[in-house]
Amino acid sequence: MKVSVKTLLLMLAPAVMFAAMAGSSFEGCAAQKQDMLMQNVKDFNNNLRWKRYDHAAQYMPADMSEAFTETMEKDDENLSITDFEFKEIVASPDGNSLKVKVKIAWHKKNEGVEKKAVLTQNWKKGGTGTWYMASMEGEGPWKPELFKPSDKDKADGGGDDVGVKDDAGDDAGVKDGGGADAR
Questions:
Q1: Is-contact 150 158, C-beta < 8 A?
Q2: Which of 27, 33, 52, 107 is deepest in the core (most CB within 10 A)?
Q3: Does residue 105 fall inside a structural domain?
Q4: Domain of 121: which CATH number?
């Protein structure tokens, strides 16, 4: 099922209003999880844009995040992401994965030309309920191998060793009662 960001927000609005009026914690919790997931997607992309690579890496599997952080810190001075926009969000029928299409604009200082591309981010829910960016596809400013699925993720769904942690070390990803990651 393909859903635009605007449509997704319009679909969620009645559920949020119903939960508020009915006082139902179940619907409120589901809406809160959806809001937290979208906040994680936005945070990941904002962290990429503003060169907060260590924060962006928190949304990736451990083996992917290490290579990503090392590579990005080396290329930090050359790359400038100028904009990103969410174009489409496609949820899996089982609710355990999302495909997020992101239009990104960037330039490399040694090239001086702005480029644009639409990238597909594949988000998955790990065994602990934490959402993570499992892979990214498309011709963006990064080496494609930086965002390929890890062997563990390919084999068993991975994701158990990822997720945003709050200051106390508690999981702040999308799961029951998860809090927002303060940045």
A1: yes
A2: 33
A3: yes
A4: 3.10.450.50
